[in-house]
Design brief:
10 helices; alpha/beta
Length: 337
Amino acid sequence: MESIKHILIIRLTSMGDVAMTIPVIRTVIEQYPKVKISILTKPIFLELFREFKKANLIAFEPKGRHSGLIGIFRLKNELKELNIDAVIDLHNVLRTNFLKFLWGRNFHQIDKGRRQKTSLINGTVFKQIKTTHQRYLDVFNKLNMSVSIAKPVFPKKTNLEKYNKKVIIDSNKKLIGIAPFAKHEAKTYSFEKMKRVIEYVSEEHIILLFGGGEIEGKLLGEISENNKNVFSLVNGFTLSDQMDFMSNLNLMISMDSANGHLAAMYGVKVITIWGVTHPYAGFLPFNQNTENSIMPDRKKYPKIPTSIYGDKYPEGYKNAINSISTEEIIQKIKEIL
């Protein structure tokens, strides 16, 4: 480890997986402050690493200068100029495998645990497997680093005064984030049911709604307009803006999706709502309690988890997530607050 002065960290997609690297990288920087850190990721994710002021952020452009095999050759040459001592590949896909072939020594990759995840999905075993955060740590420890996330430290809350004209926050009320969407339908809770949760909780607390894109923006905007104490942070707010608000939350309610991981980056308590996926696969948000994971009854849906990402499920499982009652979610919110 003594000879390692500059580490390159690679994680290209997706937003949730990229967000899960943050607590681990934060710990590495705290425990090894003399080691220079470079981070390679897609341009849209660079903002996630904004707290690492001294880190060298590198944009990976798969549709631009890093496209195809020639692009990976170009990337390798660009990276070699940075005098990198070791590469930590937290992605381990075809692109990074080719980069590893070109790179040579001191290129260490994540073990994604595909065999264990397959056993979990096909029903061979049903138990907690290694978390993604631990898998990330394991790669750093291949460099004889002794990195521990047992006692995490989180960034300070961002001052929200600059947003006063857009969002009116009553300091006497709790600030609750709700992210009601996910990439796949089978792990997205009924929007009508979630609206009932929002309406109930907003009677006493301030609700901030998180999402992205035109469709989600329109739906969340309508809820914001029709309910007091409810504000949509989609239209007119950047990812960085949303992260500012997340750092101030008392609680985040999220599907098994990126927003739960983003909030957890700041030490916020997160309630996660699961459909055909399951926290045993290792994607529980950082430093969270599994008791705050709300899942369908496995007596009714014994094949859960049916997939790791929520894109595959047998007949009759698509709406498993909607077997969860609004009362169960509201009760969990009350317990935590």
